[in-house]
Design a protein that fits this description.
By secondary structure, the chain is of the alpha/beta class. 44% of the residues lie in helices and 16% in strands. Helix 5 runs parallel beside helix 7.
């Protein structure tokens, strides 16, 4: 795994939206030419059903270009990513909101069937050549309801029974301290089980958590998941677009520092994501500032979402060519800086006192 090599600067790009090998070859050369050394490939339920052998070839092609690979559990249990197809087979495994409404696309993390399904997915990832799993933004949902209140998940019968057994009273309709604890514990317990399974296969487990509040696991509650010795790498995605009154450099720098402090405390590696999607026209240079900020804060595993400004998605950058140019420039700048820092460090060791 290239990210375990000393002095290695990891520069990754998320890739999805194409499963044609002819285009994959061209895109991989483009990725290499823009200074990346790692690709995060999505492996959704649709990929499992329709592109399993193709994805095996894509992973082989990627590694053949000298690029490392992380495999993303894209949409396996619902957003982020695709809607969960698993729920068509196990309709009793939906997340349920505290107002009684059913989330149509998210799976309950306490569902034994969903945990079994996740382990089957891990088996397939291993079979197609994946050795590093990127667990993408684990969370539970919340939504606004009447009166400015929030309904939360998961309040299915399974979770209500577990809450009552643990705390001695019925799960309330609104969030309280014990509900927050229960939600975080549900996410952590799910990952305790599934990452232990993948680790048995000598697979690496990497997670990215959200920055926002009240989603189960976020940058504020990151310590809960850091306690798992089966997770080797814990990161976050300080996306500045949509944030109010922030400068991209300041926001990314400060968020990266918080992430790195927690990782240092628990002896974990890190991954910091730069927003390359949904970039408004004329704001592409912010990608460069944000990349500099992550590096300046101390990050050495820096990734971008996604390839060519996520051109194949509705949330793409307004001008994908310009966004991709800025993404590549950001990677070039930190590559050059990293090489210069290593050279200076080696010279100082070879010529002490000079």
């Amino acid at each position: 795994m290239i990210h375990n090599q000393p002095d290695k600067l990891i520069k990754g790009i998320a890739y999805h939206g194409n499963r044609m090998l002819r285009h994959m070859e061209t895109d991989l050369r483009d990725i290499v030419n823009n200074h990346f050394n790692l690709v995060v490939h999505m492996f959704s339920h649709t990929d499992w059903d329709r592109h399993r052998s193709i994805m095996k070839e894509i992973i082989q092609m990627t590694e053949g270009h000298g690029l490392d690979v992380w495999v993303d559990n894209w949409g396996l249990g619902g957003p982020p990513g695709d809607k969960s197809h698993f729920l068509a087979y196990y309709p009793d495994s939906h997340q349920v909101y505290s107002d009684g409404s059913v989330d149509p696309v998210r799976a309950c993390l306490n569902s034994p069937n969903f945990r079994k399904f996740t382990k089957e997915w891990i088996d397939v990832v291993y079979d197609i050549g994946g050795r590093s799993i990127f667990w993408d933004e684990p969370h539970l949902a919340a939504k606004a309801i009447d009166g400015g209140k929030k309904a939360y998940t998961c309040a299915c019968e399974r979770c209500q029974n577990a809450f009552r057994e643990q705390y001695g009273y019925d799960m309330p309709p609104e969030l309280d301290e014990n509900v927050e604890k229960f939600r975080i514990a549900s996410v952590v317990d799910y990952f305790r089980e599934v990452t232990a399974y993948s680790q048995q296969k000598q697979m690496e487990n990497i997670v990215c958590v959200m920055l926002g509040s009240s989603y189960g696991i976020n940058l504020d509650s990151i310590e809960a998941i850091c306690s798992l010795d089966t997770l080797q790498n814990i990161g976050s995605d300080p996306y500045w677009l949509g944030q109010k009154n922030v400068h991209p450099y300041d926001f990314v720098y400060e968020s990266t520092k918080r992430n790195l402090d927690v990782c240092k405390k628990f002896g974990k590696q890190h991954n910091i994501w730069i927003q390359g999607y949904a970039t408004p026209a004329g704001r592409e240079e912010e990608i460069i500032w944000a990349t500099d900020a992550a590096y300046d804060a101390g990050a050495r595993q820096i990734l971008v979402w996604g390839f060519r400004g996520s051109e194949s998605n509705d949330y793409r950058a307004k001008s994908p060519d310009m966004a991709w140019k800025a993404i590549g420039e950001g990677m070039r700048r930190i590559t050059d800086r990293h090489h210069d820092e290593i050279r200076r460090s080696r010279l100082e060791k070879l010529n002490p006192g000079k």
